[in-house]
Amino acid sequence: THSKEKPYKCSVCNYTCKSSGKLKINMLTHSGLNQYNCSKCSFSCKQARYLKVHARTHLEEKPYKCSECDYSCRQLMRSHSGEKPFKCSECNYSCKQNSYLKVHLRTHSGEKPYKCSECNFRCSQSGHFKVHKQRHSGEKPYKCSECKYSFKTFEELRVHMLTHSVEKPYKCAKCNYSCKLAGYLKKHMLIHTTEKPYKCSECNHSCK
């Protein structure tokens, strides 16, 4: 258990592990088989523990009660304790939910289950895949409440909203200059240095 040797190797991807049980679980991600089926609905999964968690969605039972407030839920509450019981066997990463660990493990295995039907793009996270799909569809679900602009990502909307605000959170440490975007502050800081990062490809001229 203390050895770093990982003799079990996946024949489909680069995944390696210390036990045959873990290799078997990894192989299920390639097989597409879901051997555990819910008797109440069409849900199926690859591991018994996932089926056990899913089964609670058919019950009113909420066995986990928070000792700090009145909240109760079907899965263990860890927001107050900060407990991160799910630990990666490959690195020091730990998290509160098994689903987060599952996504993290793809950084080690190289698995990219989300494939775009329009191009060759593949990724490991559903959120990244959703953003990518919007490039093909032209969909802009994030709408500005102040004007008619809409955007593909929340980050684009967040930056745009600063144009409606008088807030200038980025402040220069050398003078009284302040601005709305980090990029503007970075450009401003050049006036306080002798650095000239923009160089001409045709001659020796450089500028700020």
Automatic annotation (TrEMBL):
Kindly give the PROSITE patterns that the UniProt entry links to this protein: ZINC_FINGER_C2H2_1, ZINC_FINGER_C2H2_2
Any idea where the C2H2-type domain is?
Answer: 36-63, 86-113, 114-141, 142-169, 170-197
Q: List the InterPro entries hit by this protein, alphabetically.
A: Znf_C2H2_sf, Znf_C2H2_type
What GO cellular component is one of the record's annotations?
Answer: nucleoplasm
Cellular compartments annotated: Nucleus
**BP GO terms, sorted:** developmental process
The answer to whether UniProt assigns keyword Nucleotide-binding to this entry is no
**Family statement drawn from the similarity comment of this UniProt entry:** Belongs to the krueppel C2H2-type zinc-finger protein family.
Q: What is this protein called?
A: Putative c2h2-type zn-finger protein
